[in-house]
Amino acid sequence: MKVSVRLDFSPVTSDLAAIVHELYLNCPTYISLIGGDMPTLNDIRRELDTLRHDTRRQALLLMQENRPVGFLDYKVAYPDLHSATISLLLIEEKLQGQGLGKAAVEQLEAQLSSRMDRLYAVVYGSNEQAKRFWERVGFEHLRDSGPTLSWYMKSLK
Ligand code: ACO
Fold first, then answer.
1. Residue 71 bridge partners (DSSP)
2. Beta strand ranges found along the chain (DSSP E)
């Protein structure tokens, strides 16, 4: 069922790694789709620690009524000064298909549109569901970089 959704974006630091880890644990289909092992809590902690050193990178918990429902990782001024790039949008598996992903993208577009011209999304692996999602929310397929990365783009102007 589609619902009208309002999400809060809450910055993630490594002390919130357990919450992000829980989201990954709740998305087993995605992990098997990209052919990886489920990350451990320490993997997540290390990754979030690394993010801290890159001020252009934003890791956010997507909160709905104070409950974490997803994770968003994007980088501003990348790949050029006037663009931002989403590397991961993850919605908890049992909440997928209810409009949360679309709401997250729309809210991010609204936040970025005054300072960025373009928003990119980079899809890893043969994730056909994600490719359909990005097209459905208005992104166009730009190119495939090698066999595992597909670039999508939406103009914010
Ligand atoms: N196939 C076709 N269309 C789809 C699919 C799909 N698998 N998933 C969503 N859509 C369409 C919906 O039908 C909807 O269209 P509508 O507005 O015309 O009805 C639109 O996309 C928005 O759907 P949402 O319900 O907002 O999508 P959801 O909340 O499930 O979020 C997401 C989509 C982020 C892909 C989610 O399913 C998810 O977390 N999947 C696992 C992780 C993943 O693959 N993330 C993307 C990786 S690539 C990247 O982040 C750059």
1. 61, 90
2. 8-11, 57-64, 67-76, 83-91, 118-124, 140-145, 149-155
Instruction: Give the residue carrying structure tokens 């709740």.
Output: 26
| Residue identifier of the C-alpha nearest atom 26 of ligand 1 | 99
Decide: 91 in ligand 1 pocket, CB within 6 A: yes
Spatial separation of the C-alpha atoms in residues 29 and 116, rounded to whole Å: 33
CA distance 20 to 68: 9
How many angstroms does the Cα of residue 106 sit away from the middle of ligand 1? 13
* Nearest CA, atom 10, ligand 1: 133
Tokens 């899809």 correspond to what residue? Answer: 123
The pLDDT tens digits of the residues spanning 111-150 come to: 999 999 999 999 998 899 999 999 999 999 999 987 789 9
Cis peptide before 79, with omega less than 30 degrees from 0?
yes
Asked whether the whole model's pTM tops 0.85, one would answer: yes
d(CA 23, CA 88): 13
